[in-house]
Amino acid sequence: MFNLLKRKDPVCGMKEKKGKGFEKEGKWFCSKECLNRFEGGKISKKGCCCCH
């Protein structure tokens, strides 16, 4: 039930893990790599395997 409230990384789709990852502008990112890809506009599609 509580999984429905978790945010997802907009780059890879990973669900938020408490105490992990990075937040910027209200979005949660699982890694610096995903954050950098998002900032650089290098997102090919949601759910890609960028870092896992």
What portion of the residues fall into strands of 2 or more residues?
A: 5-15%
Number of helices: 1
Structure class = alpha+beta
Globally, the shape reads globular
Number of strands: 2
| Terminal residue distance | 25 Å
- Share of helix among residues? 10-25%
N-to-C order of helices and strands: EEH
Q: Could you tell me the radius of gyration in angstroms?
A: 10 Å
Across the major sheet, the strand order is: 1-2
Domains, number: 1
Major pleated sheet: 2 strands, antiparallel
Assembly level: single chain
**What would the average pLDDT be, to the nearest integer?**
82
Poorly predicted tracts of residues: none
Question: Which keywords apply here?
Answer:
52 residues, alpha+beta, two-stranded antiparallel sheet, 15% helix
